[in-house]
Amino acid sequence: MATIAYADVLKHTPLPIDAQDIVSRVRIVVAGSRAGKEPSSYRSAYAAASGGGEQAVTYLQLPWVHEYADASDATYRCTRSFALPDGVEAWLDPTDSGIPEPTLATGVTNPGSPSAIRDGDAGTYAQNTGSGLVQLEYSLSGYGYALGFYLRYEASFAGGGPIAFFAGPGGVMLTQLNSGFPRFLTQGSYDCVPTSSPVEMYAVLPWDARGLSENGGSGIGSLTTTITLLFDAGSFASAGDLKVYEFYPLMLDTTLLNGIAKQNIKLPASTPQRVTINGYVAPDKSHTITGWPGGDYTGAVAKQTYGGGETIIDFEQKGSPAGITQEQAQASSYNAQAQRARIAAANYPVRLGERQ
What we know:
By secondary structure, this protein is mainly beta. It has helices at residues 73-76, 254-263, 326-346; strands at 2-5, 9-14, 25-31, 35-36, 41-47, 54-56, 64-69, 79-83, 104-106, 126-127, 134-139, 148-155, 163-167, 184-191, 195-204, 226-231, 242-250, 273-278, 286-290, 297-307, 310-315.
C-alpha cells in the first residue's frame, strides 16, 4: 500500500455510483437434473389436498440450489444465480457431524462410530451376517435433506432383488400424506449388480418442482428424506457375501457454499472517486492519502493508470476510460452484461446433470 501526500494530488473528482451489477443474494446451482447412476425406476406422486389417495404424475425436476443472502439484501434485493465452480465438491465429508449414523442396520455388521460405511476409510466395510434380509437406512429427520447417495460395495448374490433406494421428501411418510396442500414427491430405485471387486455408485435425484409452495405445493424444506440400501431375504448364500465399504447420503456442505457465495456478493461503492497524482505511484490493492481534508483517506484501488507524468487512480469503482463520459461507459457495461446473460441462458450448464 502506497502512502501519498495530499500535496501531490492534482485533482479529485467524485464518480457516479454504478448500481448495475449489484448482487446482495446469491443462488448457487449445485445440480440441474438427475446425475450419477440412472434410476432403474422412479416415481413422482402427490397426495390430494382433499385427503384422497396418491396419484402418479409427470415428474418435473427441481434444480438443487444453495442460497445465501448478505445483510444488505434487505435494502437492495438483487439476486443472481451462479453455477457451482468446476472441480468443487459440494457434499459434506461422510464423517462430518452433519451426517447421522445409520438409523437402521438389519442383518449386517455396522461397527464403530462413525460406522464402517461412513468412516471415510475405503478399506473398512460392513458385511452381511447371514442369508436373511439386509437393510441399511438413514433417516435424516433433524439433519436436513439429502440430494442423493454414494455407495461402494461388492456382492455375490444367491437370489432376491437387491436395490439402492432413494426416497425423496417425505420418505417413508408417503402413506401418511393425507391432508393439507398437495405435496409432490420423488422416489428412485437403483439396481445393484453382482461384482467380485468393489464398485461405486452415486446418484443425485432432484425433488419434483411442484412441491414448492410458490408452485402450489406445501413446501419441501420441512419434509424428511430417507436413504435405504435393501437386499431381499435370500439374496446371499452365506455371511460375507456382501461387503458395503461406503454408503452415505449426499448432503450439502453449507459452510463451503456460503464461502463461495460471499465471494460473489457485490455491493455498490460508497464514495467512489478518481484522484490524479503528480508523478508515478507503484500499483497496489489500496493506497492511503495523508493530509486529506477531514482526515487521512484509505481506499481500495479499482483501476490505476500512468502517463504524462501523472498517475490516475479510481478508488472503489472503475471510472470511464479517457475521452468517454461515465454515461457512455455505463451504457456499454450494461450492453455487455446483457449479452453475457443471453449467452449464459443459451448455454445453461445443468451441473451434475449430465449422465455419468
